[in-house]
Write a structure and sequence with these properties.
It comes from Paramuricea clavata. The chain is an alpha+beta fold. The protein is built from five helices and eight strands. It starts with a helix and ends in a 14-residue tail after the last strand.
């Protein structure tokens, strides 16, 4: 390649980097105001609920009460941490959402994500493994973590409580790419949050194939 060719390639890379920088910062500084709870102990399920509803809708005592109602006679309740640190399971999330007239639906990963009718879906919840850290170092154990995704104004955001701030995802197409990336890990599970007013199974488009 000639010297002029090298200069053109170099200039092209500079322009692309500037475009990326400006686009990212425009999205960050112009994103809508959002409610975003940060991670405390093992209260990710509580954070998921409040981040989904964009307000402090649930509290620890309320989720604990749900645990006791699910298993009132247990000496050690199986739906939460025995130490009172959270770690609520899928049954607690399901019942909490039912109290607000929402369904919590497990998504079969064998289905095509493009069949999701995103216009009828209130929010998305992901359950995945993560490695906890102590003093900045990863501990060689895995724990389950809940995180919420919601459309706010015209774009989707990752409202994971482990993030310092909500993460911009983008439009419908960007969301599908984000979900495909997350579900590439076989142990990750996806749940759909839908209002009870939405007709049964209408959150999935009809597969023309």
């Amino acid at each position: 390649m000639s010297k002029v060719g090298h200069i053109k390639v170099y200039c092209h890379l500079i322009v692309n980097n500037i475009k990326y920088f400006l686009t990212y910062h425009f999205q960050f500084y112009n994103c809508p105001a959002m409610y975003h709870e940060r991670q405390r102990l093992q209260f990710c399920a509580l954070h998921v609920l409040n981040n989904l509803f964009q307000a402090e809708v649930f509290s620890k005592p309320e989720l604990d009460d749900i645990c006791y109602s699910l298993n009132p006679d247990a000496t050690i309740n199986p739906h939460k941490s025995m130490f009172g640190w959270g770690n609520y399971d899928v049954n607690v999330l399901t019942m909490a959402l039912q109290l607000k007239d929402y369904q919590f639906i497990w998504f079969d990963k064998r289905k095509d994500l493009n069949l999701l009718d995103l216009a009828t879906i209130y929010g998305i919840v992901i359950n995945k493994f993560y490695k906890p850290k102590c003093l900045g170092l990863e501990i060689p154990i895995k724990r389950r973590h809940w995180l919420a995704v919601r459309k706010i104004d015209e774009n989707f955001y990752n409202l994971d409580s482990k993030l310092d701030v909500p993460e911009y995802i983008g439009n419908d197409e960007h969301l599908i790419k984000f979900l495909k990336f997350e579900l590439a890990v076989s142990t990750t599970e996806l749940f759909i949050v839908v209002s009870n007013s939405v007709p049964e199974d209408s959150w999935m488009k009809v597969d023309a194939g």
